[in-house]
Write a structure and sequence with these properties.
Elements: H1 2-6, H2 12-37, H3 41-50, H4 52-61, H5 65-83, H6 91-110, H7 117-125, H8 133-152, H9 154-162, H10 164-169, H11 174-191, H12 193-196, H13 201-215, H14 219-244, H15 248-266, H16 272-279, H17 282-286
Helix pairs in contact: 2-8, 2-11, 2-13, 2-14, 3-6, 3-13, 4-5, 4-6, 5-6, 5-11, 8-11, 13-14, 13-15, 14-15
């Protein structure tokens, strides 16, 4: 068993890939808790696809693709905040407009590049085994910035997310905090680009957070549990990729989905298995686990 676990780590690219996957798995899982609780899954997917024009422009200018992706993600995030700021246009409408426009521009630019097919495949589905030392430093630096901001502004984000009236009473800058959350999400999408790719980053933002949501009803434990699930998915997915000879990005997402399905079925409070037994009267006869809603209040801080 030890030899089986150490076998992939003989290679430097696997060591770098494992570290990058762990960083991205934890970062996406923590930020994804806000995505799940605020019902912003569409926003994560939109930002992931909206970075395509930035990548295309960076490719044309022969600069780092991550720089182009970062600029595009920040511009789209700022554009969403600007359009929805006054409340005339709802945020989901602004997301749909800018998502479609950025994606169309990216496809139009990429269609003009006949030599771009291989690079585009890596961007769409990730290429974690191609992570270099410089990429690791960039992922670590951006990820540390995002996590540090979340830790420092945890209470503010909590109030703005769950009690806008209290946020107004406390005179918190709700608009700026929402904008900052968009920027953090944009940074997370860019950090995840090489690991799971544009097409799968939304899954890593949503799936670990949704799994943790089924298992706890407090935000801080939810973030910790989500980070653990994201890290476990990254490690198990990378080993699955190595021994199963499948792409690493899809492997990581599939493992995360398995964790979600297990929680969906067997969560003590919300699992469908226990709900089925409760409907059958199993609890009344045998004193088994409580039903999915018994004693389960709304998510608390």
């Amino acid at each position: 068993m030890i030899a089986w676990a150490l076998e992939p780590l003989r290679y430097g690219f696997m060591q770098r890939g494992l570290l990058a996957s762990l960083l991205v798995g934890i970062l996406c899982a923590v930020v994804g808790c806000y995505i799940v609780l605020r019902s912003m899954a569409f926003l994560g997917d939109a930002l992931a696809h909206a970075i395509l024009p930035g990548i295309a422009v960076a490719y044309l200018l022969k600069v780092d693709l991550l720089i182009g992706a970062l600029v595009a993600a920040l511009l789209v995030a700022l554009g969403i905040a600007a359009i929805s700021h006054r409340g005339v246009i709802r945020e989901d409408t602004a997301i749909g407009i800018l998502f479609a426009a950025a994606l169309s521009l990216g496809v139009a630019l990429i269609s003009r590049m006949k030599s771009y097919a291989v690079d585009l495949t890596h961007i769409l589905f990730g290429h974690v085994l191609g992570v270099g030392v410089r990429d690791l430093w960039l992922i670590g630096a951006l990820g540390a910035v995002v996590l540090l901001v979340i830790v420092l502004l945890f209470k503010e984000f909590l109030v703005v997310s769950f009690d806008p009236v209290l946020a107004a009473t406390l005179r918190l800058p709700a608009g700026r905090l929402r904008l900052l959350l968009l920027v953090l999400l944009a940074l997370t999408v860019v950090v995840s680009l090489q690991t799971v790719g544009v097409g799968l980053v939304a899954a890593m933002l949503v799936t670990p957070g949704a799994t943790a949501y089924l298992l706890t009803h407090r935000l801080a434990p939810m973030m910790g549990l989500s980070a653990a699930i994201g890290a476990a998915s990254a490690v198990a997915g990378l080993y699955f990729s190595y021994y199963g000879n499948v792409p690493s990005g899809p492997a990581i997402v599939l493992v995360a989905t398995v964790f979600f399905l297990l929680a969906f079925a067997f969560s003590p409070k919300r699992g469908v298995f226990w709900a089925y037994l409760r409907r059958r009267g199993w609890r009344n006869r045998h004193g088994g686990p409580e039903g999915p809603c018994a004693g389960q209040g709304p998510l608390r801080s």
